[in-house]
Design brief:
This protein has 490 residues and is of the alpha+beta class. It contains 12 helices and 25 strands. Strands 10-9-8-17-20-19-21 form a 7-stranded mixed β-sheet. A 4-stranded antiparallel β-sheet has the order 12-11-13-16. Strand 3 and strand 4 form a beta hairpin. The N terminus is likely disordered.
Length: 490
């Protein structure tokens, strides 16, 4: 259930209490006999339930005064919390919210923190009821732009998709070994057993040691896409130029009848825009309720299960999850980059209607396959309709689709959940540059981890290169991963 429960714990310095003042009371509470307070705990890595240990007589009297239904509920709650504890020992379900009392069979003890699922009229700002939102048909497939019958024929250079698994997708071309190792090893360290799907440089351009490393890692699926790239002047160059070049992709589609490779039907565009076509093709290879995370590889470090607490839906639709940047530090109008991307794609009038809204980061999106596939169709369509070729226009597309309700009621999407910065699985840190993350209270330098606002460890730390302390911590982790791999792979 993605609804916010009314009975959740408050996290205070790693202790989780029903009442945020409970921790202070337990610290100060006098003990009648002058001895140390004896407590019984259920301890997980990021939650602790404390209660005074009673005498046998007190316990018996207490049990007799409580209904049998409540007693059984408390037992069930304790059993479920013990399961959470066991998972946390395996680096799963870190930093989750948990129920403080039993809410009934079928109600998960883990409660994802939902920030915003409301649908608002873009003109009035008023909330809309579901029956007031126009039901939209399916977005066109990225192959519909072609007049002939085509199919996706792009295959991985190595590795194999497992359709029943969750997956993390990233466009990761042209990086050094430490960047790949930091991304992949930190994810593996969380206990993640799903697919890690990357697009890298063509094999002839890939550093031999990087290729050796990538081939050695488990559950990795690697695509070596080939691009024809051009400067803005039209001059052809042999690389993507850090995403600044406009590029066309080789070998994505073929004629379904003859097998002949079909030329990229779209104009040359930044690879940051073209990556959504790759993601779309990859998404087709997973089951409807597989959880998929689209994330930037260069500046991401994993600290916990990226899908912890995300339960699959039971119907024919799924949940789409967006992650915002800090709303106090930035907005679509405060950020000149976001403003320019939106105006370039949709015009000034369209921008002004949503200019005061928080920035939703396009570099981190999660959801069930059936919802992600629909979202990716919409993202590709935005380029087809706007022809926006600025590097970063994909973030303009992303925010436009959300704030103009283009995804509401779309085929495959049950609902869209937007998490405020520091309150979801992905903590976007890029807008927090006005002061060090330690001053924001979001970085524990002793443990070397990024925190969410509730002081739990953020499962995914994104944009880790914006803060000097975090940059150094991340670089040390990457160096350690590389050294460990090299020592075991001479």
């Amino acid at each position: 259930d993605d609804g916010a429960a009314q009975n959740t714990h408050h996290v205070i310095d790693g202790e989780v209490m029903d009442d945020p003042n409970e921790f202070a009371r337990q610290e100060k509470e006098p003990v009648v006999d002058g001895g140390e307070k004896d407590v019984e705990t259920v301890q997980g890595k990021y939650f602790t339930m404390l209660k005074p240990r009673r005498t046998t007589g007190e316990a018996t009297d207490g049990m007799l005064s409580v209904s049998n239904e409540n007693v059984m509920g408390e037992k069930k709650l304790k059993n479920e919390l013990q399961k959470v504890k066991a998972n946390q020992m395996k680096k799963k379900d870190l930093g989750v919210n948990v129920l403080s009392r039993w809410m009934g069979d079928g109600v998960p003890v883990i409660v994802p923190e939902v920030v915003d699922t409301k649908i608002k009229n873009i003109e009035t700002g008023k909330e809309l009821k579901p029956n007031e939102v126009e039901n939209k048909s399916q977005f066109p497939s990225p192959v519909d732009i072609l007049e002939e019958d085509v199919e996706v024929v792009l295959k991985p250079a190595f590795g194999q998709h497992r359709s029943d698994q969750n997956a993390v997708f990233a466009f990761a071309e042209g990086y050094t070994l430490d960047i790949y190792a930091g991304f992949i090893e930190s994810l593996i360290d969380t206990g993640f057993m799903g697919d890690i799907v990357l697009s890298v440089s063509s094999l002839e351009k890939l550093d031999p040691e990087v290729e050796k490393y990538l081939r050695s890692r488990p559950n990795l699926v690697v695509y070596a896409a080939k691009w024809d790239c051009f400067k803005k002047s039209g001059e052809e160059i042999d690389n993507t130029n850090g995403g600044m070049s406009d590029c066309k992709m080789h070998g994505m589609f073929a004629n379904a009848n003859t097998g002949e490779i079909v030329e990229d039907p779209r104009e040359a565009r930044p690879v940051a825009t073209a990556r959504y076509e790759l993601y779309w093709a990859w998404s087709l290879l997973y089951s409807p309720h597989s959880q998929i995370l689209l994330i930037d590889a260069r500046d991401t470090i994993f600290q916990g299960d990226p899908f912890g607490g995300m339960k699959p839906s039971s119907g024919e639709t799924g949940i789409l999850r967006f992650f915002a940047e800090n709303a106090d530090a930035t907005s679509l109008s405060i950020s000149s980059f976001n403003k320019n991307w939106l105006i370039a794609a949709y015009g000034k009038a369209a921008f002004e209607k949503i200019s005061d809204r928080p920035v939703i980061c396009s570099g981190s999106t999660a959801g069930e396959q059936v919802a992600i596939e629909s979202y990716l169709r919409a993202m590709v369509l935005q380029f087809d309709e706007t022809k926006c070729k600025k590097k970063g226009c994909d973030q303009g597309f992303h925010n436009y689709l959300h704030y103009y309700n283009k995804l509401v009621g779309a085929f495959g999407i049950d609902k869209i959940i937007v998490y405020e910065q520091g309150k979801g699985a992905v903590n976007n840190l890029g807008a927090m540059k006005t002061k060090p993350l330690t001053e924001w209270g979001l970085l524990d330098t002793e443990k070397g981890v990024v925190l969410n606002w509730d002081k739990s460890v953020a499962p995914v730390a994104h944009q880790v290169d914006r803060d000097e302390d975090l940059r150094q911590i991340s670089n040390r982790k990457r160096k350690t991963y590389v050294n460990e791999w090299r020592s075991s792979n001479p």
